[in-house]
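>> received
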Amino acid sequence: MFFKPGPLENRLYLVVDDFGDMRSMIKNMLMACGVRDIKLARNGSEAIEQMEQERFDVVLCDYNLGTGRDGQQVLEEAKYRHLLGLGSVFVMVTAENTRDMVMGAVEYEPDSYLTKPFNKDFLKTRLEKLIAKKHNLLVIEEAVEKRNYSKAVAILDEKIAAKPPNCNELRKIKGNILVNSGKLTEARALYQEVLAIRELPWARLGLGKCDYLIQNYQQAIDEFQRIKSQNPNYTPAYDWLAKSHKRANQLIEAENILKQAVSISPKAVPRQQLLGEIALVNQHQEIAESAFTKAVQHGRHSVYKHPSNYANLARVTADNHDGASALLVLKQIDLDFNNDPKADFYQASAESLIHEAMGNSDLARASLGKAAELQKSFDQSEDSDCAIELAKTYKNFGMEEESVELLKGAILNNHTDEELMDEIKLTISSLEMDEQTLGTIDSIREEVLTLNRKGVELAKSGQLDEAAKLLKETSTRMPANRTVNLNIALVLLMSMEREGANPNMIDEIKGYLARVAKADPNNSTLQKLYGRLKIMMAKTAD
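>> returned
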């Protein structure tokens, strides 16, 4: 399953190319180098299917794969879904060197490029160098896969101390692990240590991320702006700079940064989507239409394809042009999404507003009813975006009470999600709602915090039954709230650790933890509670 140190031939290869002759040529070159374990894929879909089944050590993927996903989108999805390990090598093969292709592919950091034509000796030399660079990442990959981040960091420290040729890559991996596991003080120290030696964009970006995550937005803006000035084509700095401006409620600045970023690299779907959303709030309809058009266009074969982009494009098309054109945009959802309830929801929500603007009141109400029924059927742990979408639609129909209830529910279920709170604030602003009608976001969040604190205090004082009862009652109002679910699981675990293992309680705990795992599988508290649960399960087995 994992990357195997040793000679070139002791690896599992995947060759992806839509031309049979090219696939055969690369396969023959690899076989001439002693490689025997080679799988082939004709297109992006086959490549992803193969990567779902096996962990490849080396992927050689052509950029131009004909109809469907291109090489960038294969790499994009493989990274997004963790189908490549730390020790895997991904090589982009291309005959193109257009700016859009190069910038788009660079964003997802392939390990190397091979420009056609090339021969066996060149391929062998390139692969040997790439494999040598990554040969010491196996044990780190194993620890990360098991979410044993402290072990991964300890292994990295040992390897970094030996000063290998890929020392900076090891430091970069360590920084990412520290940030993702919430150890921001340690991450900051690492990035500052690297920057004291040499100004590297990834280290400066990491430092800015730390500032962003502790809500020091102005400092984050300064860091990302510095990277942008020194490295004008380093698009991650633009994205984080825009996000920081957005969090600081500097929406014009965020929009301007994103416009610069899409001019450099237009194929990133999340970037076009964010530009469209911010341009809508800024009432820059033409910019929004252009951004959503590109998000839909580039997203058709991307892992980031989302029906909200189609719905937003339809709405802005109705505003900029006419309702009939907007409804044609929505029909594309039926073609690009196959029996997807979320797609049906976004389609119905947008249709209701467009029909209402066209004077088709009966059709508008029918679509609104369909959207409302679909939204109710969704799992609340995944439903925040749909709740906000329907709240916007309700408000436009004058149904303010229903809109307020949906927004309150989204806050109660996600009170620790700062980005979602920002989204709700933008929604309130764009709909010109009175925040006092909602009850201020901070007051709703404080309500959740108070109930959680009371439950925790009861547990600490040994009143576990009372704590569990209070937290379960709280959970009925906010079933998707991660903090509440984790605290219930903790209290029930404490009860079993005091009274003895209980199979029914174990099943109950699994249910609460599953709610969190669905939304936040890497949550550090979740992993600790799973560890304690395994101990109790072992006791019941005995």
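>> The chain is about 70% helix and 5% strand.
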